[in-house]
Design goal:
This protein has about 350 residues and is mainly alpha-helical. It has 13 helices and no strands. It folds into two domains: about 70 residues; about 280 residues, Orthogonal Bundle (ABC transporter involved in vitamin B12 uptake, BtuC). The chain is globular, with a radius of gyration of 21 Å.
């Protein structure tokens, strides 16, 4: 009984230390960015006021837009959290998102007269499967031939972007548009809006209320989730226990690609209503920062996604009112990655110190 209580306290201490590490990463990222804001001749406090208070959550419209930005980041990050748990480094979520968007547009334009609910379901399922299929190639190369997935997923990003460019300037191009983009989807395949006058769409609720709990349950409450953690923590112990490491690698990559592809499909259906080269401002790469910042935990990833959505959405108001370039949002994202990675050994050290002190 005492051992189980001590184990529970140790687990709680570990979680608290990781939360502390994430908060430190955010604080250091904002502090470092404020130095650059100051060098640009602006007041950092004023800049962050316009970014977060006015730009991200100033009213119902801006708050909804923050959730709109956070939704694709959340879906991508949840998938990456699954893969990263097994130490499978999927850097190809951006390409998987684009492939999901491309297939969603192609399927949507080909569906014809299917009922709205059926057509929308088929389109989104197709986008998810496209993302999973795009992740399958580097997954098999890693599982079967031990080829580093970092290199293959990065390469697959470039292939995806060139493939999308080919279709949007060729077979799938809108003949009446001056830009490389697909024709507009039938309105019956647009994701339903929940509130008139704002872009609060059904996909936001699906991501927050359906996908997030599923990923949390999968990672924390299932045998598969346990094996993910075991493979990530100690591959030799996992192999000794009979875990098929190759299968875990492939499945974790498929889940990651599936959610990234779904993010692309939702963006096409709910926001763009067509496939465009500018579908993503880098959601696939932002997801890496968010997954690390959320400590690969579904609830942490949700909160980190909203924070990053606020940074991106609020950067436009900050630009207008404080004359700070919108690119500052991407600087903050990069700094978050750096400090989130750096904070992990610090949080682990705090955890070990607390465990030693409690043992004494």
């Amino acid at each position: 009984m005492g051992d189980s209580v001590d184990g529970g306290e140790s687990l709680m201490a570990l979680r608290l230390s990781r939360v502390l590490g994430s908060l430190i990463a955010i604080g250091l990222a904002l502090l470092t960015a404020s130095l650059f804001i100051g060098l640009a001749g602006a007041n950092p406090v004023r800049a962050y006021y316009y970014m977060f208070v006015k730009g991200a959550f100033g009213n119902s419209v801006t708050a909804v837009e923050t959730l709109v930005r956070a939704t694709p980041i959340l879906l991508v990050s949840l998938g990456l959290a699954v893969a990263f748990t097994a130490r499978v480094w999927n850097i190809g979520a951006e390409g998987q998102l684009y492939m999901g968007g491309l297939v969603a547009a192609w399927v949507g334009l080909s569906l014809g007269g299917l009922p709205s609910s059926v057509g929308l379901t088929v389109m989104l399922l197709s986008s998810a499967l496209a993302g999973a299929a795009w992740a399958l190639i580097p997954a098999v190369l890693r599982a079967k031939y031990e080829i580093n997935e970092i290199f293959t997923t990065v390469i697959m990003n470039y292939i995806a972007l060139y493939l999308v460019s080919y279709f949007l300037t060729g077979p799938l191009r809108d003949p009446v548009s001056q830009f490389p983009e697909s024709p507009t989807l039938p309105q019956s395949l647009w994701m339903p809006r929940l509130v008139q006058g704002v872009r609060l769409h059904l996909g936001i609720l699906v991501a927050i209320l359906v996908i997030t709990p599923i990923v949390h349950f999968l990672r924390e409450k299932t045998t598969f989730g346990f094996r993910l953690k075991l493979v990530g923590a100690n591959p030799e112990a996992a192999r000794y226990s009979g875990t098929d490491i190759g299968s875990i690698v492939v499945l974790s990559m498929l889940i990651s690609g599936l959610l990234a592809g779904l993010a692309g499909g939702i963006e096409v259906s709910a926001i763009q209503h067509k496939m465009r080269m500018e579908l993503s401002p880098g959601y696939g790469f932002t997801g890496i920062a968010v997954a690390l910042l959320g400590n690969l935990n579904a609830v942490g990833v949700l909160l980190a996604s909203i924070f990053m959505g606020a940074v991106i959405n609020g950067s436009y108001t900050m630009h207008r009112m404080a004359h700070i370039p919108v690119g500052m949002a991407y600087l903050i994202q990069g700094l978050v990655i750096v400090f989130a990675v750096a904070s992990e050994p610090i949080s682990e050290r705090i955890f070990r110190k607390e465990v030693v002190e409690s043992a004494d």
